[in-house]
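Cross-check.
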Amino acid sequence: MHVSPAASAIAIGNIVRSKRSTCFRSRNQPPVKGRTSIESCLAGLPPVAGFTLRTTKIEGRDDLAYVQGTFALTVTPAGATAPTEESGYFLEVLRRQPNGQWLIAVQMFTGHQ
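Predicted model, tokenized:
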């Protein structure tokens, strides 16, 4: 299964600390649900050589918020002789935990095409 390499730059930090109900979505792929499945999916991604994330909007109320923005990354896929560049949009839905920490509940990426 191919999931956008942007995940390795963003998702590992927050998403794998989230609850089992966490859902990761990448363009043209079915959702990957649960911490173990997400970690397994991310472990198979090639390393990211360059990554830029730009948040364009954050909004929320009570215990629910969302973040949207753009990303650009450089990665060398397995078997490729040169790096490729990808850019697109992202959307994250976050839930505030009882301890006040915000964790990602759903994360989606879509590329410019």
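Residues 6-111 form a domain with the Nuclear Transport Factor 2; Chain: A, fold (CATH 3.10.450.50). Strands lie at 23-26, 32-33, 48-61, 64-75, 84-96, 102-111. Passed to J.P. for a second look.
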